[in-house]
Amino acid sequence: MLFPESETGDLSQSSFPLESSPVLSLKSINADVPQYKDLRKNRTRLLHHLEILYQRINGQPICLVEHKDCFTNGAMRDTLRKLLGGIKNFRKYVMIYSIDPTVYRYPLPMEDRIYILGGSVSETYDNFGHDFTRRFSLPLIESVAESSRMRVLAVCFGYQSMAQAYGNFIGVPIETKKEAYQFGVYPLHFHQDVHPAIEPLISRFPRYAVFSRSGYPQTADGRPVSSIPDIQTLASLQGEFCYGSASAHYLPPGVSYLKDPATGHDKMVGVQFHPEIQNTKQHIQPILDFINTLKPSELMVSPEVALEGSIGRVRKSIAQVFMTSVLEHFAKEITDQ
User: Fold this and answer.
1) pLDDT, tens digit (0-9, with 9 covering 90-100), for 72-114
2) DSSP of 6-44, one letter per residue?
3) CA dist., res. 211 & res. 95, Å (int)
4) Three-class SS string for 55-82?
C-alpha cells in the first residue's frame, strides 16, 4: 500500500461567497496530504538520470513549453523546483520556452529531451490553437514517433493539442468541441497495467486533481478520443462529478500512446487535469482570480460552486507524486537508450 488509505475524503459541497474564501488558509488546505513513502528515492533517481542527460547533451534535458499569461505557469515552475530540489537544479535541468500567442514562434523538437506541455489561456479550437497544433504539436509527435530518446508529458491545453496532432498523424481527424468553462477538484481512478509511471497512484480509494477546461476533443465522426487505436486510458473520473460535462464521455482524464518498441512503454502521457497544482494558496489563488474574471454564463456551474470546487478537496492533491514518477520513468528510459 503506497498511500495511507484510511479515508476517501469529504465529497460534500458547501457554498461560500466569492469575496470570502475562508478555506484558503494554509492550515486548512495543507491538512491530510497523502504521503508516498518512496518519493524521496524517486527524486534521487530522477536527478541521477537528468544529470546523465545533462552531460550527454551539455544542456537542459527538460523542455517546459508554457504559454504566456496562463494561470498555471507559476504552479508548474514551483512544483518542478520542489521536486528537483531547488532553484539551482531547476535552472540546470529545465529550459523554459514561453509561447506568446501573438508571435506564433515555436521551438524545434530535439532528442534526449523530456517535453512538458502546459496549459494556455488560448483554446485548441481558436486560431492560435490550430496554428500551435499544426506547427508545433504535429512535428513533435512525428519526432517522438521516430526517436526512442524523446518523451512528452502534455497537460490541459497541451493534452488536447497533442491529441489532435496524434489524430492527424495516424489519419483520424480530431476536432475540439467548445463547452463552458469547467473547474473543480475531481476524484480519479488510475488503471493498473497501463503505464509503469502511474503505479504509485493506483489505489482502491480516489486520488484528487484540479481540472480546468472549456472544450473536449473527439473524432470528426463523434467518437471518444479513447476509441482511437493505440490510445490507452490511464485514469478515469471516479463517480459522477462532472456536472454533465460532455468531456467526461469523450475525453479521458489521462491517456498514453506512441509505444516504444524497445521498452513496450508509451512515450507520451497526456492528462486533462493539472498534476502540477499543489495544495498551497500560491497555486490555487491564480485559478480563483481567473474564475472571478468570467461571467456566470461562461461557467458550467455557478461561480460559487466552481470556486469551492477548486479548493475544497485539493488537500488530496497528487501533484508531486505524479510529476516525479512520470519524469523519473521518462528520464530513465531515455538514458537507457
Assistant:
1) 999 999 999 999 999 999 999 999 999 988 888 898 899 999 9
2) S-----------TT--GGGSHHHHTTT----TTHHHHHH
3) 25
4) HHHCCCCEEEEEECCCCCHHHHHHHHHH
pTM reported for the whole predicted model: 0.85
- State the residue for C-alpha cell 541521477: 48
pLDDT tens digits for range 128-139: 999 999 999 999
Query: Where are the chain's structural domains?
Result: 22-335
CATH of domain 22-335: 3.40.50.880
Q: How far apart are CA 154 and CA 156, in angstroms?
A: 7
How far is residue 123's CA from residue 136's CA, in Å, rounded to a whole number? 15
Q: What cell was used for 285? A: 489563488
In our burial notation (b when 16+ CB lie closer than 10 A, e otherwise), range 89-99 reads bbebbbebeeb
Between strands 254-259 and 232-237, the pairing is: antiparallel
